[in-house]
Design goal:
With 225 residues, the protein is α+β, with helices and mostly antiparallel strands. The chain has one domain: Beta Barrel (Lipocalin).
Protein backbone atom coordinates (compact mmCIF):
# COMPACT_ATOMS: atom_id res chain seq x y z
CA UNK A 1 0.00 0.00 0.00
CA UNK A 2 2.88 2.34 0.72
CA UNK A 3 4.06 1.93 -2.85
CA UNK A 4 0.66 3.05 -4.10
CA UNK A 5 0.69 6.19 -1.96
CA UNK A 6 4.26 7.11 -2.96
CA UNK A 7 3.73 6.73 -6.71
CA UNK A 8 2.13 10.01 -7.82
CA UNK A 9 -0.68 10.42 -10.33
CA UNK A 10 1.44 12.78 -12.42
CA UNK A 11 4.18 10.15 -12.67
CA UNK A 12 1.59 7.62 -13.84
CA UNK A 13 0.36 9.95 -16.57
CA UNK A 14 3.91 10.66 -17.74
CA UNK A 15 4.81 6.98 -18.01
CA UNK A 16 1.56 6.10 -19.76
CA UNK A 17 2.43 8.46 -22.59
CA UNK A 18 5.80 6.75 -23.11
CA UNK A 19 4.65 3.14 -23.42
CA UNK A 20 3.67 1.78 -26.84
CA UNK A 21 1.75 -1.47 -27.15
CA UNK A 22 2.81 -4.30 -29.44
CA UNK A 23 0.62 -6.71 -31.38
CA UNK A 24 2.13 -9.84 -32.93
CA UNK A 25 1.78 -9.65 -36.71
CA UNK A 26 0.08 -13.05 -37.09
CA UNK A 27 -2.71 -11.90 -34.79
CA UNK A 28 -3.11 -8.46 -36.38
CA UNK A 29 -6.82 -7.75 -36.92
CA UNK A 30 -8.54 -5.44 -39.36
CA UNK A 31 -8.75 -2.08 -37.62
CA UNK A 32 -10.84 -0.32 -40.27
CA UNK A 33 -14.05 -0.41 -38.20
CA UNK A 34 -12.35 1.45 -35.36
CA UNK A 35 -10.92 4.23 -37.52
CA UNK A 36 -12.37 7.72 -37.54
CA UNK A 37 -13.36 10.56 -35.24
CA UNK A 38 -15.46 9.86 -32.15
CA UNK A 39 -17.06 12.16 -29.56
CA UNK A 40 -18.31 11.21 -26.13
CA UNK A 41 -21.98 10.50 -25.53
CA UNK A 42 -22.34 11.83 -22.00
CA UNK A 43 -25.86 10.45 -21.57
CA UNK A 44 -24.65 6.89 -22.22
CA UNK A 45 -21.37 7.20 -20.27
CA UNK A 46 -20.64 6.58 -16.61
CA UNK A 47 -19.59 9.50 -14.43
CA UNK A 48 -16.27 8.68 -12.69
CA UNK A 49 -17.23 10.44 -9.45
CA UNK A 50 -20.53 8.57 -9.23
CA UNK A 51 -18.80 5.27 -9.94
CA UNK A 52 -16.14 5.98 -7.30
CA UNK A 53 -18.81 6.84 -4.73
CA UNK A 54 -20.61 3.57 -5.46
CA UNK A 55 -17.44 1.45 -5.25
CA UNK A 56 -16.36 3.25 -2.08
CA UNK A 57 -19.69 2.49 -0.39
CA UNK A 58 -19.56 -1.16 -1.48
CA UNK A 59 -15.97 -1.59 -0.25
CA UNK A 60 -16.66 0.21 3.03
CA UNK A 61 -19.71 -1.96 3.70
CA UNK A 62 -17.68 -5.08 2.96
CA UNK A 63 -14.96 -4.06 5.44
CA UNK A 64 -17.53 -3.16 8.10
CA UNK A 65 -19.37 -6.45 7.68
CA UNK A 66 -16.23 -8.57 7.97
CA UNK A 67 -14.81 -6.65 10.92
CA UNK A 68 -18.13 -6.77 12.79
CA UNK A 69 -18.59 -10.50 12.22
CA UNK A 70 -14.98 -11.42 12.91
CA UNK A 71 -14.59 -12.75 9.36
CA UNK A 72 -11.88 -10.29 8.42
CA UNK A 73 -8.87 -11.52 6.50
CA UNK A 74 -5.83 -12.74 8.43
CA UNK A 75 -3.99 -9.74 9.84
CA UNK A 76 -6.63 -7.25 8.67
CA UNK A 77 -7.23 -4.33 11.03
CA UNK A 78 -9.42 -1.21 10.87
CA UNK A 79 -6.31 0.79 9.94
CA UNK A 80 -5.65 -1.48 6.97
CA UNK A 81 -9.26 -1.07 5.90
CA UNK A 82 -8.77 2.71 5.93
CA UNK A 83 -5.63 2.36 3.81
CA UNK A 84 -7.56 0.18 1.38
CA UNK A 85 -10.26 2.83 1.00
CA UNK A 86 -7.63 5.54 0.49
CA UNK A 87 -6.06 3.39 -2.20
CA UNK A 88 -9.43 3.07 -3.93
CA UNK A 89 -9.84 6.85 -3.90
CA UNK A 90 -6.39 7.22 -5.49
CA UNK A 91 -7.35 4.74 -8.20
CA UNK A 92 -10.55 6.69 -8.78
CA UNK A 93 -8.64 9.95 -9.18
CA UNK A 94 -6.26 8.36 -11.67
CA UNK A 95 -9.18 6.75 -13.49
CA UNK A 96 -10.94 10.10 -13.75
CA UNK A 97 -7.87 11.75 -15.27
CA UNK A 98 -7.22 9.09 -17.89
CA UNK A 99 -10.88 8.84 -18.98
CA UNK A 100 -11.74 12.54 -19.21
CA UNK A 101 -11.29 12.52 -23.01
CA UNK A 102 -14.22 13.95 -24.96
CA UNK A 103 -12.90 13.42 -28.51
CA UNK A 104 -11.01 10.50 -30.09
CA UNK A 105 -9.21 10.16 -33.40
CA UNK A 106 -8.46 6.52 -34.24
CA UNK A 107 -6.03 6.28 -37.15
CA UNK A 108 -3.45 4.04 -38.78
CA UNK A 109 -0.01 5.34 -39.68
CA UNK A 110 2.20 2.72 -41.23
CA UNK A 111 2.04 -0.32 -38.95
CA UNK A 112 0.92 1.67 -35.94
CA UNK A 113 -2.63 2.15 -34.71
CA UNK A 114 -3.07 5.41 -32.80
CA UNK A 115 -5.96 6.27 -30.51
CA UNK A 116 -5.41 10.01 -30.16
CA UNK A 117 -7.33 11.27 -27.16
CA UNK A 118 -8.16 14.94 -26.75
CA UNK A 119 -6.37 16.46 -23.73
CA UNK A 120 -4.82 13.09 -22.80
CA UNK A 121 -2.06 10.69 -23.80
CA UNK A 122 -2.49 8.57 -26.95
CA UNK A 123 -2.81 4.80 -27.01
CA UNK A 124 -0.51 3.13 -29.55
CA UNK A 125 -0.57 -0.37 -30.92
CA UNK A 126 2.44 -1.53 -32.94
CA UNK A 127 1.44 -4.24 -35.41
CA UNK A 128 4.30 -6.72 -35.73
CA UNK A 129 7.26 -7.77 -33.61
CA UNK A 130 7.40 -9.32 -30.17
CA UNK A 131 6.04 -7.71 -27.04
CA UNK A 132 8.85 -6.02 -25.12
CA UNK A 133 9.11 -4.93 -21.54
CA UNK A 134 10.67 -1.62 -20.52
CA UNK A 135 12.29 -2.52 -17.22
CA UNK A 136 12.22 0.92 -15.59
CA UNK A 137 9.08 2.35 -17.16
CA UNK A 138 6.74 -0.62 -17.16
CA UNK A 139 5.28 -2.39 -20.17
CA UNK A 140 2.19 -2.49 -22.35
CA UNK A 141 0.47 -4.82 -24.79
CA UNK A 142 -2.59 -4.83 -27.00
CA UNK A 143 -4.66 -7.72 -28.32
CA UNK A 144 -7.97 -8.49 -29.96
CA UNK A 145 -10.56 -10.35 -27.90
CA UNK A 146 -13.59 -11.07 -30.09
CA UNK A 147 -14.72 -7.58 -31.17
CA UNK A 148 -12.76 -5.80 -28.44
CA UNK A 149 -9.37 -4.14 -28.85
CA UNK A 150 -7.67 -4.37 -25.45
CA UNK A 151 -4.75 -2.26 -24.25
CA UNK A 152 -3.04 -3.38 -21.05
CA UNK A 153 -0.40 -1.26 -19.31
CA UNK A 154 1.71 -2.25 -16.32
CA UNK A 155 3.43 0.47 -14.28
CA UNK A 156 5.82 0.59 -11.30
CA UNK A 157 4.23 0.31 -7.89
CA UNK A 158 1.95 -2.55 -8.89
CA UNK A 159 -0.36 -0.48 -11.10
CA UNK A 160 -2.27 -2.10 -13.94
CA UNK A 161 -4.50 -0.27 -16.42
CA UNK A 162 -6.74 -1.85 -19.03
CA UNK A 163 -8.57 -0.02 -21.82
CA UNK A 164 -11.12 -2.23 -23.59
CA UNK A 165 -12.47 -0.74 -26.84
CA UNK A 166 -15.68 -2.39 -28.02
CA UNK A 167 -17.63 -1.53 -31.16
CA UNK A 168 -21.38 -1.93 -31.29
CA UNK A 169 -22.76 -4.38 -33.85
CA UNK A 170 -23.85 -1.50 -36.08
CA UNK A 171 -20.52 0.27 -35.66
CA UNK A 172 -22.19 3.49 -34.51
CA UNK A 173 -20.98 3.38 -30.90
CA UNK A 174 -17.53 2.83 -29.44
CA UNK A 175 -17.40 1.88 -25.77
CA UNK A 176 -14.16 2.23 -23.81
CA UNK A 177 -14.18 0.36 -20.50
CA UNK A 178 -11.20 1.42 -18.39
CA UNK A 179 -10.09 -0.53 -15.32
CA UNK A 180 -7.37 0.62 -12.91
CA UNK A 181 -5.99 -1.78 -10.30
CA UNK A 182 -3.06 -1.79 -7.89
CA UNK A 183 -1.34 -4.14 -5.49
CA UNK A 184 -2.62 -3.65 -1.96
CA UNK A 185 -6.04 -2.35 -3.02
CA UNK A 186 -8.84 -4.90 -2.82
CA UNK A 187 -11.21 -3.19 -5.26
CA UNK A 188 -10.28 -2.17 -8.81
CA UNK A 189 -11.78 1.03 -10.21
CA UNK A 190 -13.59 0.78 -13.53
CA UNK A 191 -15.56 3.26 -15.61
CA UNK A 192 -17.12 3.09 -19.07
CA UNK A 193 -17.33 5.88 -21.64
CA UNK A 194 -19.37 5.67 -24.84
CA UNK A 195 -18.45 7.51 -28.05
CA UNK A 196 -20.30 8.18 -31.29
CA UNK A 197 -18.84 9.03 -34.73
CA UNK A 198 -18.71 12.62 -35.98
CA UNK A 199 -17.14 14.65 -38.75
CA UNK A 200 -14.76 17.28 -37.33
CA UNK A 201 -15.09 20.88 -38.48
CA UNK A 202 -11.91 22.91 -38.09
CA UNK A 203 -12.55 25.93 -40.32
CA UNK A 204 -12.91 29.07 -38.23
CA UNK A 205 -12.02 27.27 -34.99
CA UNK A 206 -8.84 27.86 -33.03
CA UNK A 207 -7.78 26.00 -29.91
CA UNK A 208 -5.18 26.62 -27.25
CA UNK A 209 -4.17 24.93 -24.01
CA UNK A 210 -4.34 26.75 -20.69
CA UNK A 211 -3.17 25.61 -17.28
CA UNK A 212 -6.48 26.32 -15.62
CA UNK A 213 -8.96 25.09 -18.24
CA UNK A 214 -7.01 22.65 -20.40
CA UNK A 215 -7.97 22.81 -24.08
CA UNK A 216 -10.12 25.84 -24.95
CA UNK A 217 -11.56 26.38 -28.45
CA UNK A 218 -13.26 29.45 -29.88
CA UNK A 219 -14.79 30.43 -33.21
CA UNK A 220 -12.79 32.71 -35.50
CA UNK A 221 -9.70 32.36 -33.31
CA UNK A 222 -10.75 34.95 -30.76
CA UNK A 223 -9.34 34.49 -27.24
CA UNK A 224 -9.82 36.79 -24.30
CA UNK A 225 -6.73 37.10 -22.12
Amino acid sequence: MARLMSFSLSACLLLLGLLPSLLIANDAPEFSEFLGHWEVDFAASEAPNDKLRYLYDVTLSDHQRRLASGQNRIGETPFQAIDDLRGLVNLGRLGEQITRTAVLNVRMQGNTLYVDRDDNFSLRCEVGGIAEEAENLGYSRCRMNDRALVFWLGLPGGFGIEHRLILSERGDRLSIATTVAADGVSQAFSVSRVYQPFEPVTEGIQCQYTLGKGKVCTLNGGFND
